[in-house]
Amino acid sequence: MGVLILLALVFGLRRGEALGLMWSGFDPDAGTLRVTHAVKRIKNRDSNATRKTKLVINQLKTKKSRRTLSLTPELVDAIKRHRSAHNAERLQAGAEWTEHGLIFPTAFGNPSDPDTFSHLFSKLAQKAGLGHWHPHELRHSGASRMLAQGTPLHVVSDVLGHASIAITKDVYGHLMEGDKRAATEAISSALLGRPKRVAPKVAPTDAEEAG
């Protein structure tokens, strides 16, 4: 689950998108990963079925949601290591394996249940002392991290697969207020000659000195 969580965090993937990643979309030589499908649970319309719902792998509907992500060498290596473990699991499953081409399937190759992923992730988050986290927190954290590092809003929008940059601005625009204030300070200082504010030096506490 580690690589799954890593990719969801780095790229702000929706949980269904993360579970719907395909091996056919992974190009280690180019260092890219295509987001083209999502796993979701829908109502089972088969009247003879024993279960009221079923898992499906749907192709993402919009051009914006179908996107290509650029991978760092470290991420490529992480996915390669996961593929080795994936192949070993497939061999162990033998004839019980059902191939769907998914990067993060169940132990028998079937689509992973998004609700099961949410439950397991929440347990991991609580164990790590983060409280009750939903996988969507990974998406928000990923977007916040990109903006904090100065990634342009339109690039963040493309990575997240938003239909328009307006959606990204509406959801995450408040995170950019600090950047706008800093820009205003810099322009004002340059034009008016106002000295830059320097943070006062604070004597370290005993704990800081000890550390």
Describe the structure.
The protein is mostly helical and 211 residues long. It has a single domain (1-192), classed as Intergrase catalytic core (hpI Integrase, Chain A, Orthogonal Bundle), CATH 1.10.443.10. It is built from nine helices and five strands. The strands form two sheets. It has a three-stranded antiparallel β-sheet, with no helix packed on it. It has a two-stranded antiparallel sheet with strand order 3-4. Helix 1 packs across helix 5 (136-148) and helix 6 (153-160) packs across helix 7 (165-172). The chain starts with a helix and ends with a helix.
What layout of secondary structure does this protein have?
Layout (H helix, E strand, L loop, with lengths): L1 H10 L3 H5 L6 E2 L4 E4 L1 E7 L9 E7 L7 E4 L2 H21 L20 H14 L8 H13 L4 H8 L4 H8 L4 H16 L13 H5 L1
Antiparallel strand pairs: 1-2, 2-5, 3-4
Summarize the structure.
The chain is mainly alpha-helical.
List low-pLDDT spans: 196-211
Strands ordered across the widest β-sheet: 1-2-5
**Average of per-residue pLDDT values:** 85
Question: How many discrete domains?
Answer: 1
Supply the CATH superfamily name. Intergrase catalytic core
**N to C succession of SSEs:** HHEEEEEHHHHHHH
- Summarize the biggest pleated sheet: 3 strands, antiparallel
The fraction of residues assigned to DSSP E strands is 5-15%
What is the CATH topology assignment? hpI Integrase, Chain A
CATH class identity: Mainly Alpha
